[in-house]
Amino acid sequence: MKLTWLSGAALLLKLENITVLVNPVYKISGVTPDVVVVTNAGARYSDTEVLKEYLERGITVLSGERVYSALGERPSSVLLAPHSVWSERGVTFYSVKAESSDRTAIGVIIDDGERTYYVAGGTLYNFDVIDDCLDLAPDGVDVAVVPISGSGCTMNARDAADFAYEIGAKCAVPVDYDATGSTADAFDFDDGVILSPGVESEL
User: Fold this and answer.
1) Which CATH superfamily hosts domain 2-194?
2) Is the confidence at residue 80, as pLDDT, over 80?
3) What is the DSSP letter of 178?
4) Distance CA 32, CA 60 (A)
5) Exposed, middle or buried by CB within 10 Å (0-12, 13-18, 19+), for 164?
6) How confident is the model at residue 77 (pLDDT cuts 50, 70, 90)?
């Protein structure tokens, strides 16, 4: 899997058969995703006009209820409440709970049949969220992408590392801290991978 941290909570995942764009706050030049995932409502996670452009091109947009409602009824817009499942191009998206000021926020576990990737979006450390992740991936996820900004109902670096251990992550990637001016130095996880914004990395 190739992962690019774009900025904030925005990510680009390239799996063998699918390209997934997460939390786009602007259009990514030269990239046509197969699926767009929006974990939280609000300007830090998405732009309604950008999402509508993707929908007009027939690209699947998976989102929680607040974002889904803002987009209106559109053929390729899919509502993912916690515990919903969506499959596309041989890849399965499992929606899990998130603890956020957006009560319809979600996290997503992506299963390509060989590995599992958990994208937490914006969430606090929460035992219900941990239970959801372990229900779907009892042996742990292969890669966990976790926020560490410590602001706006988002985990700080210490909690995010503990959270990644609790869900049995084999590898953990911290994101969503650049806007606060903080760094990933406090993210103490044995198999942590620190990415530079805009640089594609193979995990």
Assistant:
1) Ribonuclease Z/Hydroxyacylglutathione hydrolase-like (3.60.15.10)
2) yes
3) G
4) 11
5) buried
6) very high
| CA-based torsion, 172, 175, 178, 179: positive or negative | negative
**Residue recorded with tokens 């937490």:** 120
- Inter-axis angle of helices 127-136 and 157-166, nearest 10: 40
Whole-model pTM: value is 0.95
All residues at 6 or more sequence positions from 190 whose CB lies less than 8 Å from its CB, including other chains = none
* pLDDT greater at residue 180 or residue 162: 162
Q: What angle do CA 94, 75, 107 make, to 5 degrees?
A: 20
Per-residue confidence (pLDDT) for residue 180, from 0 to 100: 72
Phi, psi (5° rounding) for residue 102? -85, 105
Say if strands 35-38 and 60-63 run parallel, antiparallel, or are unpaired. parallel
CA separation for the pair 29, 5 (Å, rounded)? 15
